[in-house]
Specification:
About 35% of the residues lie in helices and about 5% in strands. With about 130 residues, the chain is mainly α. The chain has one domain (about 25-125).
Length: about 130
């Protein structure tokens, strides 16, 4: 087709990739993400609660965590762990996908913790488009 005669629409993408287009959206633009953390608690307290561990201070820059720490800490799921540990590793995996693949930043080596608000209830993940 000559240039300009075809436009890819959201419905085309949904059909081709099998992705849902109705439901809650996931956006990388979450400027006031702290307001989305339950109960107005500090975001790093929520981080530790959901992932069970805090990164060392030299891996943190305001609201950004270095991916190297995430990979070192969560690269291998030990056998025989409980359900909550599996959920923590799942949260990290999805956060890494969102921050390094889907909504990539230029470096690819840092992850903003704004994705944490999407990871609170893994049961709701299928409601996002």
């Amino acid at each position: 087709m000559p240039f300009g005669e075809c436009t890819v629409t959201l419905q085309n993408v949904a059909y081709q990739l099998g992705l849902p287009i109705d439901g809650h959206y996931v956006s990388g633009c979450l400027t006031d993400f702290e307001t989305y953390i339950e109960g107005g608690r500090p975001v790093w307290a929520r981080f530790q609660e959901l992932l069970g561990v805090m990164p060392p201070p030299d891996y943190i820059d305001k609201f950004i965590v270095k991916c190297t720490w995430m990979q070192q800490t969560f690269s291998h799921l030990p056998e025989g762990v409980g359900k909550e540990t599996v959920r923590r590793y799942t949260r990290v995996y999805i956060m890494m996908l969102l921050s390094t693949q889907i909504f990539d930043n230029k470096s690819g080596t840092r992850m903003h913790i704004r994705w944490l608000s999407y990871m609170v209830r893994l049961e709701d993940m299928d409601s996002y488009s």
